[in-house]
Each structure stands twice: as structure tokens, then as C-alpha cells.
From TrEMBL:
SUPFAM superfamilies: P-loop containing nucleoside triphosphate hydrolases. Gene3D superfamilies: P-loop containing nucleotide triphosphate hydrolases. NCBIfam families: ribo_prot_ABC_F. Pfam families: ABC_tran. The keyword Nucleotide-binding applies. Residues 201-228 form a coiled coil. This is ABC-F family ATP-binding cassette domain-containing protein. It comes from the Bacteria. One of its GO terms (molecular function) is ATP binding. Keywords: ATP-binding, Coiled coil, Nucleotide-binding. InterPro entries: AAA+_ATPase, ABC_transporter-like_ATP-bd, ABC_transporter-like_CS, ABCF_ATPase, P-loop_NTPase. Residues 4-212, 303-489 form the ABC transporter domain.
Length: 490
């Protein structure tokens, strides 16, 4: 068993505000660590520091080498077995078969070009390559974004068999299923705690409540000190004024000067005490409430589906389903990747797609849509707001509540992280007045705090929704019904 030691670590980009400031901790290389924190706080940056890709101040000491997921494939046109031979040349055939079995990956993918694999299959192949390499400590950065709910369970079970990795993931059920320690990144610091996500979050919430209470006590004391300092300052002014026109200028003036100096000393000490109180205030993680702009529904039942399926080339994508969507329903579409969930959403949005069965929708139904793909977002936030005809002030206010800084409002959307782009799309949807909100995998790349913030907004505003989302915690919290799509060929 070896250790990774971080001592007095400080890092910032180009002299900007520090991302890490004198960070100290150590971890064992046989631990299974989950890495959590807000978008933009430095999780991927820290992994790059471990990999030696960035200059820093302080010390990172380790006797192990690091491997990173995802990694580039030298030639994706090669057959998958050739890719594995290049990148895991020391692996025996039985080891590859074992990893594929654990990952529920069909060995026949070895005979297919790597570029032809689905995103989920590529994820599993890359993980198998990493774990058959000997001796390296693995840095696994958000592997769940292209996995459906079942595949995420398989991934969690797979990682629970392993040891020696840091897993960056915002899927709370995956973290609960496979990690034994949590790395929690706060402003400028990183803390380590034993246990899974739920154990860490319970302790985190208790700590937050204690710190909020302590902050409130300190703020009251700070206000008392400031008010006392103001009163002392007023007393000094009155003493100064009393010196003018004094009968015995020598005696009274000398005494007044001493009283004034004493009051100024008192005021200075109170101001210093107030400054110290400010320094004791805890940097508590908080999220501000969000709200939907729900329209009054045109009728109680918004959508009626009877024996409905989607057709491609005349063939059903999934077995026919029947369901009703009523006001304030939050309906999840479930099914494995490729079962037709996004295709059904296209039909609901009146896109050109062939269907069979009955799909009846309430008249004048206004829909707000958030899609999976945010990669094409470009231009300014102002132009984006104009394109969708939403209130810019409300839009910027929502993004501020979701963690955007004022400086980010002036940046091009193309420079945003995937998580920030997703927040832009969700923020735009929250600005739109709608009867129905249709969100297709809205939580991809979003941090845990933002997921909880969105959960609370949904529960408070009670919008009518259709969602595709593989975060099991999220679904358990907000779903009122679900429709399971099964591939027609299964």
C-alpha cells in the first residue's frame, strides 16, 4: 500500500483567483475515491496536476504512476482487439474476457472497428484497457455521461470490484455503489472523508447547518461591534466640537484631547474586532432557489397516447405503449440506449418522424425543450437570449443563481465547459413560459449541487414534465410516473 501526499498545494491560472490555496491531504492508493464538487471548482484541474500537466506550487508526492480516462485512441479505424493490443499489450486473453464479462460487454465488439462502437461500448472498452494495465492509479473523469441507467449500475458494480482510483462523477447512486472515500472540493481546498456519497453528504449537511448557525451568531456580533464603533465615532466628533470656544482652553482642551484619543483607540479596537469576526465567517456552500414560468394548462390532460410507437423504415423502434400525461405529472421515459426515448420526444415535439398508433395533444400546447447536445453553443449570452426571445435580466439572474460569475457573462459560449453549457440551456428553459417542459438528459455534466437545486425547483414549482434522465437519485425524488420503452426487436 502506497500513499499520495499533497502538501501546501497552490495553483491558479495566469495569476487569477487561486483554484487551490495551500491544500494539504493524503490518500491511500488502494482506496476507491469519489471526487465531488461544483462545476468549475477544479476537479479536472486537480487530475491534471496529478498527471504533471500543469505547473504548481507546493508538493505532490507519489510512488505510483497515473492513468487517465478518457484517453485518445491512436487509430479508431482499427479493430477493437487491435486497439487493446496496442494499449494493453501485457494483458492476457483471459484477463480481457474477464473484464468484458464484468462490464457485460459482448466479446464480439473485439471484431468491430473501434469507431463503430457506441459511446457506451467505447467507455467500457477504455475502462477494461485501464484495469488490465498493471500498477497504475486511475483517474476516471465522468464516465457515466453516455451510459443508460442499467449500464451505470454495471459500471458501479464493476468499480466496486476494483481499487486504486479517483472517480469524478455526479451520479449519486453510482458513487454510493462503488466508492469508500470522498474527495470534496470546496473553494480553494480539498477535504477527504471515509464512506460513500450518502455518508459524506449527511455529514456535509450537518456541517453546513452548524456553520450557518455560527455565521448568524458572528454576523449579529459583527453588527453590534459596528454599531458600537459608530457610536464611539460620534462621541469623538462631539468631543472635538466641544473644544471650540472652551472657557479654559488649556485645561478643557487638554482633557478633551485625551478623551478624544481614548475614544479613537476604543473605536479602532472595535473595528479590529469586527474585522476579525468577518474573517471567522465560514464559506458555506449555498444554492439559491429557482422557479419555472408555468402557464395555466389548456386542459387537465395534455397528452393521450394509445398503442403508440415510432417507425424507422416502416419498422417499430419500440413495442407500442399507452399513457396519459396530466397537469403536474412528471413522467420519465425509461429504457436502454437505443430504445427510442429521444425518438418519442421528437414525435411529441411535432418533428418530422413517422409514428404508429394514437398521439393526441391538447390544443395550443406550448413546450419548452432542453436537448442532450450542447456542443454547438456559440456566441454571446445576450445573442442567445435574443434568439430565444427570453427576458435577459431574468436569464442572467437564473445563471447567477446557478453559479455563474459576472465575468462569465461576457465570455463566448464556445469557451464554456460542458456543465456550463447545460446550465445555459436549462436557464433558458426556466425563462420560457410553457405548459409542458420536455428535458432530454438535462443533468449530463451538472454537479451534484446543481442537481439538488433543480430537484428543489421542480418540487416547488410543480411543472408538467416529460424527462429522459439516468440519474436514479433524481428520478426517485421527482418522478410521478414512468413509461418503459422496450426495443421492438428484443
Amino acid at each position: 500500500m502506497a500513499r499520495i501526499l499533497v502538501e501546501d498545494l497552490s495553483f491558479s491560472y495566469d495569476g487569477s483567483e487561486p483554484i487551490f490555496d495551500h491544500v494539504n491531504f493524503s490518500i491511500d492508493t488502494n482506496w476507491r475515491l469519489g471526487f465531488v464538487g461544483r462545476n468549475g471548482r477544479g476537479k479536472t484541474t486537480f487530475l491534471n496536476l496529478l498527471l504533471g500537466n500543469l505547473e504548481y506550487r507546493g508538493k505532490i508526492a507519489s510512488s505510483v504512476s497515473f492513468d487517465y480516462f478518457p484517453f485518445p485512441i491512436p487509430d479508431p479505424t482499427c479493430l477493437t482487439w487491435q486497439v487493446m493490443s496496442q494499449l494493453a499489450s501485457m494483458a492476457e486473453d483471459w484477463q480481457i474476457v474477464r473484464e468484458f464479462s464484468y462490464l457485460e460487454l459482448d466479446p464480439m465488439v473485439l471484431e468491430r472497428p473501434y469507431e463503430s462502437l457506441s459511446q457506451g461500448e467505447k467507455t467500457k472498452v477504455m475502462l477494461a484497457i485501464l484495469f488490465v494495465r498493471p500498477g497504475n492509479f486511475l483517474l476516471i473523469d465522468e464516465p457515466t455521461n453516455h451510459l443508460d441507467r442499467h449500464a451505470r449500475k454495471v459500471l458501479s458494480d464493476y468499480l466496486r470490484r476494483k481499487q486504486g482510483f479517483i472517480l469524478v462523477s455526479h451520479d449519486r447512486e453510482v458513487l454510493d455503489g462503488c466508492v469508500d472515500h470522498i474527495l470534496a472540493i470546496n473553494r480553494h481546498s480539498i477535504e477527504v472523508q471515509s464512506g460513500n456519497y450518502s455518508a459524506w453528504f449527511s455529514a456535509f449537511e450537518q456541517k453546513q447547518e452548524r456553520e450557518k448557525g455560527e455565521n448568524e451568531r458572528l454576523r449579529k456580533e459583527l453588527r453590534r461591534l459596528q454599531e458600537s464603533a459608530y457610536r464611539t465615532a460620534g462621541w469623538s466628533d462631539r468631543i472635538e466640537a466641544s473644544k471650540i470656544g472652551a472657557a479654559d482652553k488649556g485645561f478643557v482642551g487638554h482633557r478633551s484631547a485625551k478623551m478624544m484619543q481614548r475614544s479613537k483607540n476604543i473605536m479602532r479596537r472595535k473595528e479590529e474586532a469586527a474585522t476579525q469576526k468577518k474573517g471567522l465567517l465560514k464559506d458555506v456552500e449555498t444554492t439559491e432557489p429557482l422557479a419555472f414560468q408555468c402557464l395555466i394548462p389548456p386542459s387537465k390532460r395534455l397528452i393521450h397516447a394509445k398503442d403508440l410507437t415510432v417507425l424507422y423504415d416502416g419498422e417499430s423502434v419500440f413495442d407500442p405503449v399507452s399513457w396519459d400525461l396530466e397537469v403536474q405529472d412528471r413522467m420519465f421515459l425509461e429504457g436502454n440506449n437505443g430504445s427510442g426515448k429521444s425518438s418519442l420526444i421528437r414525435a411529441i415535439r411535432h418533428e418530422e418522424i413517422q409514428t404508429k398508433g394514437r398521439l393526441k395533444m391538447a390544443g395550443h400546447l406550448k413546450i419548452s425543450y432542453v436537448g442532450q447536445d450542447a456542443s454547438d453553443l456559440q456566441g454571446s449570452l445576450k445573442a442567445y437570449a435574443q434568439r430565444y426571445a427570453i427576458d435577459r435580466s431574468l436569464f442572467f439572474s437564473i445563471l447567477s443563481k446557478m453559479g455563474f460569475s459576472r465575468s462569465q457573462f461576457d465570455q463566448d459560449l464556445g469557451s464554456y465547459s460542458d456543465g456550463q453549457k447545460k446550465k445555459v440551456m436549462i436557464g433558458r428553459s426556466l425563462c420560457e413560459s410553457a405548459h409542458l417542459y420536455v428535458w432530454d438528459e438535462p443533468l449530463n455534466f451538472l454537479d451534484i449541487y446543481s442537481r439538488i437545486q433543480i430537484e428543489e425547483a421542480i418540487l416547488a414549482s410543480r411543472p408538467t414534465m416529460i424527462l429522459v434522465e439516468h440519474d436514479a437519485f433524481f428520478q426517485k425524488k421527482i418522478a410521478t410516473k414512468s413509461v418503459v420503452l422496450k426495443k421492438a426487436l428484443d
